Amino acid sequence: MSDRSSHCSLDWEWIYTDDVACNDNPEPHGPVSPFASPASSQHIVGARLGTEEVYRGDCVLLRAEASGPPWVAIIRHFMVDDRGQMAADFVWFSNEREIRNTAKKRVDFLPNEIYISLSSDVNPLDAIDGKASVVSFDRFSELYPSKKVPRRSPDVGKLFVCRRGLDMRTTVYTDEFVWEDIYRGVEDLDDLIEYVSKSTKGLHPASSKAAKERPLHDTTGQETPRVLTTPRKRRLSSSSPQRRENEFNEVYVHLEKAISNGSSNCIYISGTPGTGKTATVREVIRHLELAVEADELDDFIFVEINGMKITNPHQAYVILWEALKGDRVSPTQALDLLEREFSHPNPRRVSCVVLMDELDQLVTKNQSVMYNFFNWPSLKHSRLVVLAVANTMDLPERTLSNKISSRLGLTRIAFPGYTHDQLVQIIQSRLESVPSKIVEPDAVQFASRKVAAVSGDARRALDICRRAVELVEADQSPIIRGSAGPHGKSSRRIEHASTTVSISTIKRAINEATSNPTQHQIRCLPLISKLLLLAILDRIRRSRSMETTMADVTDEMTLMLKACSSQWEEEATGALMSLVPDSQVENNYQRGSLTPRSIGLGIAALDLEAAGIVILEEHAPSRPNKIRLAFSESDIRMALRDDHEIHRLGISL
Question: What does the record give under GO molecular function (predicted)?
Answer without folding.
Answer: ATP binding; ATP hydrolysis activity; chromatin binding; DNA replication origin binding; metal ion binding
